[in-house]
């Protein structure tokens, strides 16, 4: 069940005066949502999480939500102010502009907090709230996060780089590529990876557990399939379903706000993508250089490069025996990337300063408080090992051995993780 009882109903103080018509002193929060998805009562809308966000004048709170486009009645925010209920305030409903034809769209519910309210929790209602002594409030509350404005950056910024991975679903089993990719992130200076998980294979789940236990990975449960019929595709007319790609837009935006206080930079890329600096050894020196050139910029677009997973590097020197039984792609074996064909690519992934961004899509930022910069491919590009749409002819591809610069550090780290996952072929290792 999705709620915990913080107090019992007996704990409500019905503080009726002599005349019997004073409002009761209602305590809150009574029921706090323990889920990442919380339906709004009497609607088809879903709330995800509430954040303090005072970057837009006159508004204090942004609630990342998923709204049904068809139902657009006015909504209201109610706050729990350090133990007592506020009056409600009208909500601004801001649907994100890209819905790709789906009925459900990522939506920001934005509200003003009433004066003198030290808000700790928020909920969204279809009617303005009036206290009623005969009907104690039992709303489901969302905790209000990012309430640490008073702390210094030094106290808040726990991470320099956080990678947000927006959706893990189906029977995803690409363990080898995942472990190689996470270890590459670590070598490049990533401090934290956040993954929104609907489902995956058992082996994969084991790898997630290993990384979560050591604190490098934060797995956010994402049971979107309990509430909607999520689409495995990005376009309604092609794949059907209620919501774009398992709610990817929502989780990407949620991840930005989740990391706004605590991470200097956020990388928005998929699980099979590595944002790779070509002139620097790690992301911090890359970003130091980029920010020196572009001091006011908080949005950096990184171009995609597709490395064919069906073309193997001929010497097979990284076809290692200990990885023989591990499901998934060995990225060290795929060094042929598609040659640019003169057309401009729009398939960017993004490095952002989360505090500069208001709304994002997958390949571009929708609303930001800063300009954006397109980073040249010789400075930084995405290593994305996957199926190529080009024919298998070598002339369509060029070699890129950048990953091999890290192999000496990478391989033992991958082995160590696979051993913990229970997938390393120990005989293979010994024979080597
Ligand atoms: C939304 O409303 C339109 C027009 O009333 C209707 O045709 C459509 O089926 C509705 N879609 C959903 C998902 O309810
Ligand atoms: C707001 O409430 C929190 C406890 O929920 C408390 O720690 C904080 O000091 C309060 N802030 C103000 C300004 O009263
Ligand atoms: C809370 O309110 C709903 C109706 O809004 C009601 O169905 C439910 O029983 C109430 N829960 C409790 C614990 O009283
Ligand atoms: C972030 O980078 C700075 C500068 O390189 C470094 O001093 C600091 O320790 C890093 N913080 C974390 C959490 O890694």
TrEMBL record:
Q: Mainly localized where?
A: membrane
Q: EC?
A: 2.4.1.-
Q: Which Pfam families match?
A: Glyco_transf_92 (PF01697)
Q: Which GO terms describe its molecular function?
A: glycosyltransferase activity
- Any one cellular-component term (Gene Ontology): cytoplasm
| Keyword hit for Transmembrane helix | yes
Protein biosynthesis: is it a keyword of this entry?
A: no
| Keyword terms, alphabetized | Glycosyltransferase, Membrane, Transferase, Transmembrane, Transmembrane helix
Topologically, how does it sit relative to the membrane? Single-pass membrane protein
InterPro entries in the record: Glyco_transf_92
Residues spanning the membrane: none
Localization annotation: Membrane
**What family name appears in the similarity comment?**
Belongs to the glycosyltransferase 92 family.
Quote the protein name from its UniProt record: Glycosyltransferase family 92 protein
Q: Which organism is it from?
A: Salarias fasciatus
Q: Which gene specifies this protein's sequence?
A: LOC115407133
